[in-house]
Amino acid sequence: MPTFKYKAKNNLGKIVEGTIDANAESGVAVALRQKRLELISASPAGGLTSLLSALTRKGGKVTTKDIVVFSRQFSTMVNAGLPILQGLTIVAEQAENPDFRVVMNKVRDDISNGVPLSEAMAKFPKVFNTLYVNMVKAGEQGGILDVIFERLSEYMEKAEGVSRKVKSAMMYPIVVMSVAVLVVIFLMVKVVPTFRDVFASFGAKLPAPTQFLIDVSDFLASKKSFIIVVFLVAVWFAVSMYRKTKAGAYNWDMMILKIPIFGILARKAAVAKFARTLGTLIKSGVPIMDALETVAKTSGNLVLEKAVSNARDSVSEGKTLTQPLKESKVFPPMVTQMINVGEETGALDAMLNKIADFYEAEVDAAVEGLTSIIEPILIVFLGVTIGFIVVAMFMPMFSIGNVVG
Is there a common fold for 3-154 and 155-405? Predict the structure, then answer.
């Protein structure tokens, strides 16, 4: 069925634009009348519009911020008694992201045709993930959509905050080290050769540090250095291909959790996300089996996913959630003990949210501590490296000065 781009007028006289699927232009007018819209003009949606629609079906460029803003706005509208269809129309009209606007128009069109909200959102898995869809489905069944969307916005803001802090903590040393390496390469390729020509005119034997730097500089400037570049690219390609395999992806995620310092930070962030996600799902009325399946799919770490999947199998057999989590050795003892208490007291959702609060605070403290440790280490590294180059370059001049004296 072709897609048409339309311009119409609503019952308040406001101009509304969007896209709709219809067999012909006359079908557009009929479909819009059902939505209480008067057609002004319609044309086949081709070129850029079709491309945009195709992108948004796969997720497009919709950001977490777009979804958080939508969740808060829609929660307020539903709480105020606004019909879902009208609320989606308002959200679609005022959405700043054109990709997200297309998604909202599609969701609204499906709902106007009798499709449940959760099913309409499930058609855009890259925009609304499994967790989001399952919670919306629970909200529809329980008649608490406004509460669900409020919880979703809070959950996404906290999860995004933890993820952003972990990424910044890991990216900071990588960026600084990259800049330091580029500066050193520049000195070795552009500056050291100038001194080499000067020293060659002296005809004297150079000190070992100076000769070492000149040899490294000559190597970097020669075609032989291309071999190193090719080797590094080959290693990067091999690692990338290995990570695409099931075993490779699992081993990579396991290695991330075992890296000194950064692994501890990644583990705390993973535990915080697990606890926050599972606690939010259970509190929203999602069955425990569905909740564990969703947590496993959205964990972002295959080691954690396997541990949660094993826990789900254990629960399906009538066993506790605690034992398989303890056996996985991914979760700290405090976490499994608190989950055990939550299971025994029937307050698992509240206990999980307390765990999430604790570990999110731990991530904050770890990021601050890591930053305070890394900064002086990087400064010392840069100082020693640059200092060695400077001293090595001036050592022959000191020797010449002594000879002249």
Answer: yes
355/336 Cα distance (integer angstroms):
10
Largest CA distance in the chain: 101
CATH of domain 155-405: 1.20.81.30
Across the beta sheet with 15-21, the strand order is 15-21, 3-9, 38-44
Closest CA to 213 of 196, 228, 198: 196
Tokens in use for 143? 């008649």
In angstroms, the CA 131 to CA 76 distance is 21
Residue 396: closest CA among 214, 221, 216: 214
Which tokens go with 189?
């390729």
Q: 225 to each of 65, 152, 231, how far by Cα in Å?
A: 44, 52, 10
Any idea where the domains of the chain sit in the sequence?
Answer: 3-154, 155-405
The CATH number that domain 3-154 falls under is 1.20.81.30
Mean pLDDT, the chain cut into blocks of 10 residues (405 residues total): 72 75 65 75 58 44 84 86 85 83 87 86 85 84 82 82 75 79 81 76 73 82 78 90 86 85 82 86 84 82 87 85 84 88 87 88 80 79 83 74 52
